[in-house]
Design brief:
alpha/beta, 304 residues, five-stranded mixed β-sheet, D-Maltodextrin-Binding Protein, domain 2, 10 helices, Arc Repressor Mutant, subunit A, 3 domains
Length: 304
């Protein structure tokens, strides 16, 4: 049996699309369709129900998919293990756009140079990927994001800061304490435009301040851009605004107060053998994430 046929069928069934699987596997749509048809003919059953709008696994296709995916994973693991550290094939990594572009991707080149025969596919997006459907081997996620379909490993933490542009502070003044924040214009992040609370602590004292956003964004890059433009004060993770702080386009406020740091997790698909290359990448990345949580000015993130 042609292993490539099984791989193509697996991706078509998961993505429910011949065109999507073809793009992912760098083949033509006709090649993907022919491979699945040949497999169905060889097995003597229909694995996929094809309509004009979708491709859905049949009952037999669903059972077959569940049985072959562990085999495909084991074959990949066996191939990697005998190559004595040489990584081949394709590694699909999911990560949020802002953190990926600003902090993670600049760390990847040495890993890619160490493994020139390994093809890296990076899926950027602030939405939480479906690790199985999207064939993501490992996803990097920020914050407490429980996922019943994945197992997680904590990699590091980085601080959350209160920031504003110098121009905004010149115009509206600097809040001396967290309790003064409700008097200011607030730029809010992906959580939305509803009322929210920012939690602070200092020397054993906790304080929670309710703020009402003046403008909200579903993406951290929008928060940073609006804050730099002087539209208000924002609570932003360091990884989203390090460059602006270093350049002086943003200023850290309330530096003697702490906020809960942001956790960075590696997520692996649950119930599926973790690829050797995924483990190698996370081992490499974990070592390089140490020490990049320092805030410009010398303040650093402590352990959570």
């Amino acid at each position: 049996m042609d292993i490539s046929q099984l791989k193509i069928f697996s991706r078509v069934a998961r993505l429910k699309s011949f065109s999507g699987a073809a793009r992912e596997l760098s083949i033509s749509q006709s090649q993907a369709s022919r491979a699945v048809s040949d497999l169905e003919q060889e097995l003597g059953v229909s694995l996929l129900a094809r309509t004009t709008r979708a491709v859905i696994p049949t009952e037999e296709g669903t059972e077959y998919l569940a049985r072959i995916e562990p085999v495909l994973d084991q074959l990949d693991e066996a191939e990697q293990s005998v190559r004595r550290g040489e990584l081949r094939g394709t590694l699909r990594i999911g990560m949020p756009t802002s953190a990926g572009v600003r902090e993670i991707i600049p760390l990847i080149p040495p890993f890619a140079e160490m493994h020139p025969k390994l093809s890296l596919q990076v899926i950027l997006g602030d939405r939480k990927q479906d690790l199985v459907r999207d064939a993501v081997d490992v996803a990097l996620r920020m914050g407490m994001l429980p996922d019943s379909n994945a197992t997680a490993r904590l990699l590091t933490t980085y601080p959350r800061l209160i920031v504003a542009a110098p121009g905004y502070l010149d115009r509206y003044g600097t809040p001396p304490t967290p309790s003064a924040l409700p008097e200011h214009r607030i730029v809010h992040g992906p959580a939305g435009s509803v009322d929210t609370a920012w939690a602070f602590s200092r020397e054993g004292t906790d304080e929670s301040v309710s703020v009402r956003p003046s403008i909200s964004f579903n993406d951290n890059e929008g928060v940073v851009a609006a804050t730099v433009a002087g539209m208000g004060i924002a609570s932003i993770g360091l990884w989203a605004c390090r460059r602006e702080l270093e350049e002086g386009r943003l200023v850290r406020l309330l530096s003697d107060w702490d906020m809960v740091p942001t956790r960075v997790y590696a997520y692996y698909p649950l119930g599926k053998a973790t690829r050797y290359s995924a483990r190698a990448f996370i081992h490499y990345l974990s070592a390089r994430l140490e020490g990049i949580a320092a805030v410009p000015g010398g303040v650093s993130a402590g352990p959570n």
